[in-house]
Amino acid sequence: MTYPLHTALSLAAAGVPVLPLRRGKVPFGNCPACAESACGGRPNMKTPGPCRCPSVCHGWAAATTDPAVIVSPPWAAAWRRAVCVGYHPGGAGLTVVDLDDAEAIAWARTALPATRTVPTTRGQHWIYRGAMASRNAVRPGVDIKSIMAYARYLGPGTGATVDLPDAVRALAAKEPPPARPAPHTVVPAGAGGGECPHRTPAYLDRGIAMAEQRITEASNAVHATVYRTFLAVLSRHGRCGCLTDAHVARLFTAAQAKGESPRHCTDAWTNALTRLGL
């Protein structure tokens, strides 16, 4: 048994979804059956569709905790070629703040609460308990890896893992685009600007809260309820730049509390986007 595979099985037993990473520390590319989205998935492995390919060819979305899958023939060849183990932080309920250099580390020490720290080739991974939407380049030398992302496993690290702070969530919050008047609408002078009502904080927050409640109160057909709720939210707020990663993370958290996996959440969100042409 190779070292990467041994490590992968140990992590999977602890509830951490794993995948093999090839040279260059990147996931394996699509297999021939999945090339060019023939399987219904996405060739860039960022937003996979309903593919059920048994191979390890869908990046972070292929990550699993099932030992039978990890040692299966489709995965065995990949593990023999793997140079290291990757994992899906969001699937394990974790967020990794990837600090690329000494300057980023110095910033984190003053801006973020101390947590479990893992040395990397050039910097450090700061690992927090809690999942959120991922986003790269939130500031110079700083990436956030959680839902829909993978990270290299570089050892257990040192220090105690603490809860995901608001300071990290705030880093990933996207600023809404400038307000614009509705087309073909004339706003009388002094009438108040014609700003998109979806950007009214109370209006949007009430909509997200209602969506969370709808998912939480589902007593059956949870997967269908999650999809319909995502579809309703996107149809109302998806075209005008209102939604932030923080809003999406709230919906994913509500769905996962009802037993949905991170991949099911991502599939439902992607399918809703596709249906609405977003």
Beta content: 5-15%
Shape: globular
Secondary structure class reads alpha+beta
Helix content: 25-40%
Order of helices and strands: HEEHHEEHEEEEEHHHHH
* Spatial arrangement of strands, main beta sheet: 5-6-4-8-7
Quaternary status: single chain
Give the N-terminus to C-terminus distance in angstroms. 45 Å
Keywords:
single chain, 278 residues, 9 helices, alpha+beta, 5-stranded antiparallel sheet
What does this structure look like?
By secondary structure, this protein is of the alpha+beta class. 36% of the residues lie in helices and 14% in strands. Strands 5-6-4-8-7 form a five-stranded antiparallel β-sheet. A hairpin with a 2-residue loop joins strand 7 and strand 8. The termini are far apart.
Summary of the model, kept short:
With 278 residues, this protein is an alpha+beta fold.
Give the topology.
Elements: H1 3-13, E1 18-22, E2 26-27, H2 67-70, H3 73-81, E3 84-87, E4 94-99, H4 102-111, E5 116-119, E6 124-129, E7 135-139, E8 142-145, E9 151-152, H5 166-172, H6 201-216, H7 222-237, H8 245-257, H9 262-276
Antiparallel strand pairs: 1-2, 1-3, 3-9, 4-6, 4-8, 5-6, 7-8
